[in-house]
Amino acid sequence: MVRLSRIADDILDDMPDDHKKLFGVRSGRGLLRVLVGVTVAFILAFGVVTIPAAQQKPLTQSPLKSAQGGEPNAPTAQPQQALPISLDQALYLIRSTILTLNDANRSGNYTVLRDLAAPDFQAKNTAADLSQSFSDLRRRRFDLYNAAVEAPQLTTVPALDDKGMLHLAGFFPTRPLQIRFDLLFQNVSGQWRLFGISIATPEVPPPQAQSTEPAKPAGSPIPAPQKRPTLPKKPAPSTGSDDH
């Protein structure tokens, strides 16, 4: 405090007389009191000015990249092999074909079945040819109406062969005789039309010979397709007397 007073005395000695009169001071202590008063008045008037601490800018995390510098390695779904048609479409083709054949067997007129088939099928099969091919079913009066109410079981996954033909094979679990079908369809102007058909009616295997696995729902493919049945060279059915 004594040192401050001496400094104030030195300042007062160098101050002009008119400034001394303005501040009304005659000694260094008086000048010191004036300076302290001015400082306190300034603080009360404007408050204490504080310098805010530098705020740390939040870090923005960039997405992780692969070691090659590409985008993050997101898990990718394994592509599943797409079926050539939906299972609903397969069910429609199977049922409509067999029921059309059933109508032909009952009426003896195979014209509609032939007209709905692919042009190549029509060129190789007349209505009389089809009548002869399905004569055994007609002679036995075997009714295929169960195709409308039973759930068909596919024995192969719907697939295209090397010629682009759609192959559908399986059976209807009817009793005492099953209805086994093997069908080929050709894509004609965006529509699947019958190209080959084979119908058989074997007896239901004994319980011990049947698979213990639960039956698959209607229209669902089995995990491991069986070997594709051999179709007749001529795209028409072959039903022998051993089918019953």
Report on the architecture of this protein:
This protein is an alpha+beta fold and 244 residues long. The protein folds into 2 domains: 2-41, no CATH class; 87-206 and 216-243. Helix content is 34%, strand content 13%. Strands 1, 2, 3, 4 and 5 form a 5-stranded antiparallel sheet that branches. Strand 4 and strand 5 form a beta hairpin. Helix 1 (2-14) crosses helix 3.
Keywords:
alpha+beta; 244 residues; 34% helix; 5-stranded antiparallel β-sheet
Question: What is this structure, in a nutshell?
Answer:
By secondary structure, the protein is of the alpha+beta class. The chain is built from eight helices and five strands, in the order ααααααααβββββ. The protein folds into two domains: 40 residues, no CATH class; 148 residues.
The tally of structural domains comes to: 2
Biggest sheet layout: 5 strands, antiparallel
- Percent of residues in helices comes to 25-40%
Low-confidence stretches: 48-72, 214-235, 237-242
Counting copies of identical and different chains, the oligomeric state is single chain
Number of strands: 5
Structural class of the helices, strands and pairings?
alpha+beta
| SSE pattern | HHHHHHHHEEEEE
How would the blueprint of this fold be written?
Elements: H1 2-14, H2 17-23, H3 28-46, H4 87-107, H5 111-116, H6 119-124, H7 127-133, H8 135-139, E1 153-154, E2 159-160, E3 166-172, E4 179-188, E5 191-200
Antiparallel strand pairs: 1-3, 2-3, 3-4, 4-5
Helix pairs in contact: 1-3
